[in-house]
Amino acid sequence: MPLLVVGSVALDCVETTTDQRDDILGGSAVYFSYAARFFSPVRMIGAVGEDWPREHTRLLEDRGIDTSGLQTIPGGKTFRWRGRYLPNMNDRETLEVHLNVLEQFRPQLNNTHRDCRFLFLGNASPVVQLDVLNQAKGAVLTVADTMDLWINIQRDELGQLLQRIDGLVLNDSEAKLLADDENLVRAGQAVLKMGPKFVVVKKGEHGAMFFSEHEMYVLPAYPTARVVDPTGAGDSFAGGMMGHLAALGRFDPQALKEALAYGVVTASYTVEDFSLDRLTAIDRADLDRRLAEYRQMLMF
Ligand code: AMP
């Protein structure tokens, strides 16, 4: 079943303690789409500027991602993000953000987009996310991401969004900030009370935690010794998760748990190289092999 994602399309500069890359392909919609397309057809909506290298669009199209919703804004510049990872390779600081074309971008869904039954609202202003949600008439499962910026400056609008979506994925520090509680269990439960039917708290190298009315569980990260660049891990986690749900066409508790496991495994590949470099080198069989290993690890 087709899956629709709206999010950032970026040129990233990434610094780690041992390496650095400038102007590499990134953005929440890009990581999400590339991860989700292992499982299900994906349609992507986003905006870029005239500086956008066409080969990036070709890479996405070659892998079957529908980029007809990717607009080039005349005279505009592509969104840019620069981040630096701390030596633990889990925490990072944002050094620069240039919204550029994203400052004015208001996504417009066409009929094909509106028909998509599975919708992921990548990290963006909750005002824009609400606008997309209002247009996505055919969506039966809507999941959103958010970040500390919006929790700090648009809390009321985020509150409105939370009343309207099925699921929210966010980082552990963001869940604590939103709930104003340092205990992650209480924080997750408090966010759940704000409206969504389920909440997934991403904990970086420590995996992910799931909260719904009847369930709470934690899944560890797949342990990989090769952590080169964690950028996009959260978005590819969401891509693996939503891609699996869209492929199944259901989102019951068992499907959600399996989807989270696929999210964990997909993200474990993303961190093994810069940008999409590792994901472009694997196929669905690699994901399934790693999922089988992961399943084996969790049995006791
Ligand atoms: P993740 O590591 O999964 O949190 O996602 C990192 C990606 O998010 C990078 O490729 C960035 O280009 C993108 N990104 C960073 N900050 C923002 C922002 N404020 N809005 C949208 N996308 C962002």
Description of the molecule:
By secondary structure, this protein is an alpha/beta fold. It is built from eleven helices and 13 strands. Strand 11 and strand 12 (208-212) form a beta hairpin. Helix 9 packs antiparallel against helix 10. The two termini are 35 Å apart. The mean pLDDT is 97. Adenosine monophosphate binds next to strand 2 and helix 9. Adenosine monophosphate binds at residues 8, 10, 12, 26-28, 81, 97, 123, 149, 231-235.
Q: What CATH architecture do you see?
A: 3-Layer(aba) Sandwich
Overall shape: it is globular
Order of helices and strands: EEEHEHEEEHEHEHHEHHEEEHHH
CATH top level class name: Alpha Beta
Number of domains: 1
Helix/sheet category: alpha/beta
Sheet of most strands: 9 strands, mixed
Helix count, per DSSP?
11
The proportion of residues in beta strands is 15-25%
Bound molecules: adenosine monophosphate
The rounded distance between the terminal residues' Cα atoms is 35 Å
CATH names the topology as UDP-N-acetylmuramoyl-L-alanine:D-glutamate ligase
**Strand elements, count:** 13
Report strand order across the widest sheet.
Answer: 5-4-1-8-9-10-11-12-13
Low-confidence stretches: none
What Rg do the Cα atoms give? 18 Å
Mean pLDDT: 97
| CATH homologous superfamily designation | Ribokinase
Q: What is the helix fraction of residues, given as a range?
A: 25-40%
